[in-house]
Each structure stands twice: as structure tokens, then as C-alpha cells.
Amino acid sequence: MVSKTESGESKLKGLSGAVDRLLGEVDSGVAHVLDRALAGEDISVEEGTSLLEAQGSANMNAIVLAADDLRRRTVGDVVTYIINRNINFTNVCIKHCTFCAFSRSHREEEAYYLPVEEIVRRAREAWELGATEVCIQAGLPPKMKGDYYLELTRAIKKELPEIHIHGFSPEEVLYGAIRSRCTIREYLVGLKDAGVGTLPGTSAEVLDQEVRDLISPGRITKDQWVEVVTTAHELGIRTTSTIMYGHVESARHVAAHLGLLRDIQKQTGGFTEFVPLGFVHTEAPMYGKSLVENVRPGATGAEVLKTYAVSRLMLNNWIPNLQVSWVKEGPKLSQILLNAGGNDFMGTLMNESISTSAGATYGQCMKPREMRRLIRDAGRIPAERTTTYGIRRQFGPEEDDHHDPLDLIEGEAEETFGSYARLSHSPDYKFRDRYEIPLTPVSKG
Ligand code: SF4
Fold first, then answer.
1. Pocket test for ligand 1, best of 88, 93, 104, 354 (most atoms within 8 A of CB)
2. Contacts of 358 (CB under 8 A, 6+ apart)
3. For residue 241, which of 201, 254, 372, 432 is within the disulfide window of CB 3.0 to 4.6 Å?
4. Residue 443: is its pLDDT beyond 50?
5. Closest to 231 measured CA to CA, from 186, 273, 261
6. Span 108-166, pLDDT tens digits
7. What is the rounded distance in angstroms from the CA atom of residue 310 to the CA atom of residue 52?
8. Whose CA is nearest to atom 7 of ligand 1?
9. Is the pLDDT of residue 7 over 50?
10. Residue 197 Cβ < 6 Å to ligand 1
11. Angle, CA of 432, 159 and 180, to the nearest 5°
12. What would the mean pLDDT of 60-86 be, rounded to a whole number?
């Protein structure tokens, strides 16, 4: 689509002269990389870096157009979403990642813990409203029983055998293995046997050890993260993949992260999707308390667009699903990101605590009908999917739409599902009242 003329100018083939003139301003180096990507080649980390560093609106527009073209040719115009519920069952955590505004020490007033029966109740409520997946992630409570995640999984599966459990980040898998004194592989086998379907590929942040040591010392290392996901893939447990960007990382870090994920995918084929997650700075200690030098207050709009577009351009041949995050970027920018390589609109969530606690203001739940409205208005075709991207239902024009059970709940979703603020202030779920260290449920009758 983008080509270089003999004079070194770039142009869009077959489009109007006005667009040609616009593309004439694209740097020849950028045009060359886009040509390679559009020809179906894998662009290198160096080339990805050069796209992320490219300045000016003509370069940005060309990068976004190329990503959109590649998306259309690879996955077509369908935009998927999932009906799911997040259950962040505790904010108590032994780690101190400086970007995290969610975690609390077990003695703090706002430290909460949902008992197993409440987690199961929430899963059942979601299932009855049409959810096919629960996403279970939380802090790392001190001295947790090693097989706690297995017990929790079994309890949900006993009640709801068909629900898909998308649960336990690589950090949690590592913690479970350490607490159980077993290997990562043994722990993953245990999770799979208990009924975990897929793992969230969170706790990746930026897969560069120097960056990790700066923003989250003591967190799962890059090598451990890679070990957990590749072992999971070997065992037939697929995972998502993510990046958290917009803080201290450079363009080179982002491109190298994408290159590493691509290499893993070539080896295992186990990633279902890639999700760029913009850093939410508002309440993050590393920004507010200046714990880390030179932290940016999140990505700018242009940076978000380029990050999505370059993700599509680098990963397209290997990870075709690129998810837009309405929780981080808001529904309106997320809709625009569908034109920058995105083909998935994430999930309904019903509850969200981690981004909300960091200061994200886009709510905790998006109803399916609203997702379909945004997708259609971007000129695309909505479809509900399973966790592993099987299509459950593809939708036609708006006049043929219907209401899902989740669309029919009245008032704000918060009134039905509760909110992070209520959870962290509720006397019902105070960690210090309900649990003892080492972690053992205290019967409250
Ligand atoms: S990011 Fe996760 S591991 Fe790190 S402090 Fe927050 S809850 Fe704990």
C-alpha cells in the first residue's frame, strides 16, 4: 500500500491525489518498513523501534493506515468481545510494585478479602447473566496456603462446570508454586486438573529486567515470566499476552517486548491475544510519590495509537488478535483503536478494581449492547466470542439487535455488582476480621 518512488517519496497506491500528497510527507525509512510489513514480512525490533520513534502526523497516519490494512486482510471486519466478570478477590499483597495503587498490607483498613462462597456467588450471578468466563486475579496474600488457587478453582467448577476460568497471572502461579514447594510445571498441572482454562498474561509489564528492577523490584523476573507462560503453553494451557506502557520505558523496550512475545509464539503458539495496557498514573505511587525518576504520566493519545498500530505490524503473522482496553483508554479512544489494528473490544468485566484503584474513570462494566453500538459505529461487525476466540454469535445490523440479560439490568451496573470503593470499605470483607495469618478462613457463622 505504501511505496517509495524513485525520488524517495512515499505514496499510497491507487488512492486519490490528496492522500498521495499526504503520504508524500512520510519518511522514506518509515515507508520502507511499512512496505515490508504490508508484504507480509516480519519487521525487526529495530524497525519496530523506528516506527514508534517516528514523529509527525504524516508518519503516524501512515503507520495507523498500514496497521488497519493489515488487520483487515488478516482477520477481516469482525470485532469480538466476551461476556465475562472480573473477580479480584483480595487487594492484600506482599509485593510493592510502584505502579500499583491496588495493593494493601494485611493490616490496612482498606484491605479486603472475598471468601470462597462469595467468589462462587459472583461467578454464578455472572453465569446467569450470560457470562462464559470469570477472570480471577488478585494480590498475593501473606503466607497463603499453597493450594489455595486450586481449591478456589475447584469450588467454582463444582458449582459451574461449564464456566471458563481465566485465572491466575504468572506472578500468582509462581507464588502458588513457591508456597506449595513445587515446581512451576507441577503447579500448572495442578491448576489445569482443577479446571483452569487459560491464564491471563499479566504481570508482564515490560519484559526487560532493568525496567522491572526500577518499577517493581522483587516482582516475578522476566525469565520467570517466560518460564511460566512457555510451560503453560507446553501443557496446553493457553495464555493472553500484555504490555504496560507509558511510564519509563523507551520505544526500543516496547519493540523488544513485542519481539520477545513473537519469538515465544513462534515456539509455542500458545498466546490467544495481545493487549497493550496504558499505564494509569493518577494514583500510582511511582508517579504520585515520585518513587521512580522520570516517570511519564501515561501515554499520550498519539503514543497509544502508535503502540497499537506497531503491535499489529509486528505481531500480525503470529498473534492475530489485538485487544483494545476500554478500561484503560475509555470507550471512545478504544473505538478509534479499532482503526489502528484492533479487532477485539475486551469484555463486559462487571467488576474492575485494579485500573479503578489506579485512577481510571471509565467504569467497571460495559453492557454488550453498548459494545455492539460502538463496534457498528466504527463500521465493523460485532461478534460475541469465547475466551479462546471461538465465535458464539455474530450480529447483523442494529435494527436486528436484541437485549442480553446483562443489558436488561436496571440502573448503574455498580448497584448490581458493587464497586471497588464499596468493597474496600465494606465491614463484611475486611481482611483482618475474616482471616488470620497464616491465611486461614475464620468462620463468621
Ligand atoms: S501489581 Fe500485583 S503483585 Fe504487584 S503490588 Fe500490585 S497486586 Fe501485588
1. 93
2. 99, 100, 101, 102, 280, 281, 282, 283, 284
3. 201
4. no
5. 186
6. 989 999 999 999 999 999 999 999 999 999 999 999 999 999 999 999 999 999 999 99
7. 7
8. 139
9. no
10. no
11. 50
12. 97
> Does the C-beta of 220 come closer than 6 Å to ligand 1?
no
Pocket test for ligand 1, best of 171, 280, 283 (most atoms within 8 A of CB): 171
Segment 362-406, tens digit of pLDDT: 768 899 999 999 999 999 999 999 999 999 999 988 878 888 888
Query: Which of 104, 110, 140 to mutate to test ligand 1, by most ligand atoms within 8 A of the CB atom?
Result: 140
Ligand 1 center–CA 24 separation, angstroms: 47
- Please say whether the beta carbons of 101 and 284 come within 8 A: yes
- 71: number of Cβ within 10 Å: 24
Ligand 1 contacts CB of residue 244 (under 6 A): no
Q: Mean per-residue pLDDT for 293-317?
A: 96
Cis peptide before 438 (omega within 30 of 0): yes
Sign of CA dihedral 222, 225, 229, 234: positive
* Mean pLDDT score, 263-285: 95
CB 276 within 8 A of CB 245: yes
| Interval 8-66: pLDDT, tens | 444 455 555 665 666 678 999 999 999 999 999 999 999 999 999 999 999 999 999 99
168 Cβ below 6 A of ligand 1: no
- C-alpha cell of residue 371: 459494545
Q: Is the CB of 102 under 6 A from ligand 1?
A: yes
Instruction: Quote the DSSP letter at residue 73.
Output: H
- The C-alpha cell at 207 is 519484559
DSSP per-residue string spanning 287-342: HHT--STT--SS--HHHHHHHHHHHHHHHTTT---BB--HHHHHHHHHHHHGGGT-
Q: Which domains does the chain show, CATH number per domain? A: 2-75 (no CATH), 78-434 (3.20.20.70)
